[in-house]
From TrEMBL:
Gene Ontology annotations of biological process type: carbohydrate catabolic process; small molecule metabolic process
GO cellular component: cytosol
Keywords: ATP-binding, Kinase, Nucleotide-binding, Transferase
Source organism (scientific name): Actinoplanes utahensis
InterPro entries assigned to the protein according to its UniProt record, in alphabetical order: 1-PFruKinase, Carboh/pur_kinase_PfkB_CS, PfkB_dom, Ribokinase-like, Tagatose/fructose_Pkinase
Enzyme category, top tier: transferase
Function: Catalyzes the ATP-dependent phosphorylation of fructose-l-phosphate to fructose-l,6-bisphosphate.
Protein name: 1-phosphofructokinase
């Protein structure tokens, strides 16, 4: 079982528009409402492919009730921890060429007591999990020290920890010795203080995170695919998408596919890229199932050319 932890989940409304024009009244061509948050999406992707997962989510207010209803409707196994604040709502505006504009609320503040209750739910459930996947932004309230302690307790208890976050939270996971971290290009740049321009820059940044404590680094690079750096070496892969619809949740699907396939080596990276590409081809934050996956377009290369430039 894979346990996912989303400390700042959301209700996601996605609207498809022909073109986004400021100051105009626009008509949506289509709309979708999905349960949101990076860890939630990992659980949804795993479930869509028949892999057992449990999602830990703090929930509050009418939006929290809606999130629980949406997860129940999809059949996602969850541990909902009640909080006083209102679960946030996010809006995604998607254009036909794949351009996505997101408006994310900050989310409710968690009190120290509420964060302790969430942490207890995670630690109790972690004892039967193959992986504990902590994803997304930190909510207002608990400081980085509390998050660091949670990561350290998970690693100290023997859990295989994966962290997909940004800023101080990502670095806390690295320092705690997470078995896997999954930054995107912007998060990787923030972590090492340098914007990557080539594949070699990405690889160097991944090596720096491993030297700081991470077991493996899976860097998602959008149209440039993904890079895996672990004890076995370096792999890079791409999976082109002919008709992109929404990039929301693509990195989460990549992580889910990678974990589902064993989280190691070319086969796992191939699976992750196939899941991520399928998510880009789907509307809103819908997660791909087996019928959506096409592994034939995935290309994975060991020891890739470090001089290869990244798309701007």
């Amino acid at each position: 079982m894979i346990l996912t932890v989303t400390l700042n989940p959301s209700v996601d409304r996605a609207l498809e528009v022909d073109v986004l024009v400021r100051g105009e009244v626009l008509r949506a061509a289509d709309s979708h409402i999905d349960p949101g948050g990076k860890g939630v999406n990992v659980s949804r992707a795993l479930l869509a492919n028949g892999i057992r997962s449990t999602a830990v989510v703090p929930t509050g207010g009418a939006e929290g009730d809606q999130l629980v209803d949406l997860l129940n409707a999809e059949g996602v196994d969850m541990l909902a921890v009640p909080i006083a604040g209102r679960t946030r709502s996010n809006i995604t505006l998607a254009e036909p060429d794949g351009t996505v504009t997101k408006i994310n609320e900050a989310g409710p503040a968690l009190s120290d007591t509420e964060f302790a209750q969430v942490s207890k739910a995670v630690l109790d459930a972690a004892s039967t999990a193959d992986w504990v996947v902590v994803c997304g932004s930190l909510p207002p309230g608990p400081g980085i020290a509390a998050f660091t302690e949670l990561c350290e307790r998970l690693v100290g208890s023997g859990s295989r920890l994966a962290v997909d976050s940004s800023g101080a939270a990502l670095l806390a996971g690295v320092a705690a010795g997470a078995a896997l971290v999954k930054p995107n290009r912007e998060e990787l740049a923030e972590a090492v203080g340098r914007e990557p321009a080539t594949l070699g820059d990405v690889i160097e940044a991944c090596h720096r995170l491993r030297a700081a404590g991470a077991g493996a680094v899976l860097a998602s690079l959008g149209a440039d695919g993904a890079v895996l750096v672990d004890a076995d070496g370096v792999l890079a892969g791409v999976s082109p998408v002919s008709v992109p619809r929404s990039t929301v949740g693509a990195g989460d699907a990549l992580l889910a596919g990678f974990l589902a396939a064993g989280a190691r080596g070319s086969a796992a990276l191939t699976e992750g890229l196939a899941w991520g590409a399928a998510a880009v081809s789907l509307p809103g934050s819908r997660m791909p199932g087996p019928a959506d996956l096409d592994r034939t377009h995935v290309s994975v290369t060991p020891d890739p050319d470090p001089s290869r430039p990244l798309h701007s």
